[in-house]
Amino acid sequence: MRTVGVEEELLLVDPDTGQPKALSAAVLAHADRDDPGQDVFEKELYRQMLEFATHPQSNMADLGAEIMRCRKEAARHASETGCTVAALATSPLPVSPSISANERYQRMAEQYGIATQEQLVCGCHVHVSVESDEEGVAVLDRLRPWLAVLSALSTNSPFWQGRDTGYASYRNRVWARWPSAGPTELFRSAEQYHRRVADMVATGVILDEAMVYFDARLSARYPTVEIRVADVCLRADTAVLLASLARALVETAARDWRAGRPPLDHSVSLFKLAAWQAARSGLDHDLLDPTTMRPRTPADVLSKLLEHIGDALTDSGDATCVEEAVGKLLRRGNGAREQRRLLERTGSLRDVVIECVQHTQG
């Protein structure tokens, strides 16, 4: 059974006004005092953000419980500094991001100018274990068509600087400004993958290997494939669904590789269109079918995904839970739809943030 770990980036906000608060250093200091040597919470590029990482889990119920525990622990530490946490991929309210006191982050601000100042976005990264770099790269080559579908189901950032952007995931579009971000060509071997990464670093355009922001990549720290396309999900059960689908996609890709089935060879140009469409539409309008690259309804595309990974879901024991979770998500909507529905009901972006704080903590 492949293990799965999740990294979530959370927004630190004022519990009364919903305004982002630049208090990550204080929150981390409290977490370190409360639990010396803790390795769960980390600082991010901006002082208005806090990141946590779960431990690798093979059981999805255990993963969901850990995500909720980490979210509640983050909220507890934040409350000691006068703020709280919200699983929002962008701030609905206007904000002036404040870069963390970190030499590397300051170098990024100098190198990338205003693009760095406009990157206050929160994502969810899913790590799925692989047996080797060679298996991992074979998986990366076969994941490419399905990543936009994972992006669509996680969309949770319709607002930016106090306005509706018209996108379900504006985080996706902001993130695309980094020079190394986005879909990739086929690598075909671990050797070619590592050569590509080394060549990119050698250009000097990116600072280091950690800035290779592929939609999915080999982790430099763990024996995992790291899938990086998702917004942080408003509700923890959506994050668990995302992780379940990611594990099944990795397992299916690995089986296809071992069976000698080649990856689909769509162009990067088409993958960019699929990513844009997913960011624009979320689950509310057509997506691009991963196999044909033609528009189909979200329900049809998700049905095709479940068919593609059906054997892996059955073997992991996740099939029934995943099918029910997909149906629930299509009915309820993801974070983007919920945020817009809250604004329509309350008429206030402040109230949107305050209610999303409650959803964050279950």
From TrEMBL:
Domain of life: Bacteria
GO BP annotations listed: modified amino acid biosynthetic process
Known catalytic reactions: L-cysteine + L-glutamate + ATP = gamma-L-glutamyl-L-cysteine + ADP + phosphate + H(+)
EC number: 6.3.2.2
Main EC class the enzyme belongs to: ligase
SUPFAM superfamilies associated with the record: Glutamine synthetase/guanido kinase (SSF55931)
Keywords annotated in UniProt: ATP-binding, Ligase, Nucleotide-binding
The keyword Cytoplasm belongs to this UniProt entry's keyword annotation: no
Pfam family, one: GCS2
UniProt key word Cell inner membrane: no
NCBIfam families membership: gshA_cyan_rel, PRK13517.1-1
Protein role: ATP-dependent carboxylate-amine ligase which exhibits weak glutamate--cysteine ligase activity.
PANTHER family, A to Z: GLUTAMATE--CYSTEINE LIGASE 2-RELATED
Name of this chain's protein: Putative glutamate--cysteine ligase 2
